[in-house]
Design a protein that fits this description.
The protein has 71 residues and is mainly alpha-helical. The relative contact order is 0.05.
Length: 71
C-alpha cells in the first residue's frame, strides 16, 4: 500500500518535471523563431536601405556629371 503510494508520487513528480521541460523547450522554440523572424526583417530592411543609398549615390553622380558638362 505505502510503497504503491510512494511510487505513484514519484511517477507524478517525474511527469511534472518532464511536462515542465517540454513547456520550457516549447517556449525556447517560440523565442528562437521570433529571433529568426526579427533577423530576417532586419536583413530585408538593411538590403532596402543599401539599395536606397546606392540609388542616391548614383543620382548624385548623374547630377555632378550634368553640372560638369555645363562648366
Amino acid at each position: 500500500g505505502n510503497k504503491l503510494i510512494e511510487r505513484n508520487a514519484l511517477v507524478q513528480q517525474e511527469l511534472e518535471q518532464v511536462d515542465a521541460a517540454l513547456k520550457k523547450a516549447q517556449a525556447q522554440l517560440l523565442a528562437a523563431r521570433a529571433q529568426s523572424d526579427q533577423a530576417q526583417a532586419n536583413y530585408e530592411t538593411d538590403v532596402l536601405s543599401a539599395q536606397a543609398a546606392l540609388e542616391l549615390a548614383q543620382a548624385e553622380v548623374r547630377t555632378a556629371e550634368i553640372e560638369f558638362a555645363y562648366c
